[in-house]
Specification:
It contains two helices and no strands. It has 74 residues and is mainly alpha-helical.
Length: 74
């Protein structure tokens, strides 16, 4: 779908994904889905809210994934 979004789970990423990694992926996703690289002022709030919500969903997803053969952090 969007080549700019990289895999954020181990072993594709050698260390744990950072907030910056997750936000960058969310931003690329919203850009792709909306068709806007940068939204107009009247769409900024919706665009930013979507990036925030997708970043949070990414956190939840990565925190709940169990990768076989990898030790769970904790």
């Amino acid at each position: 779908m969007c080549r700019s979004i990289k895999t954020l789970r181990p072993p594709a990423l050698p260390e744990e994904a950072t907030e910056e990694d997750m936000r960058a992926a969310a931003l690329q996703y919203v850009r792709k889905v909306s068709g806007f690289r940068a939204p107009a002022a009247h769409n900024r709030e919706a665009f930013d809210r979507a990036v925030d919500e997708i970043t949070e969903a990414t956190h939840r997803l990565l925190d709940s994934l169990e990768v076989r053969g990898a030790a769970k952090a904790g």
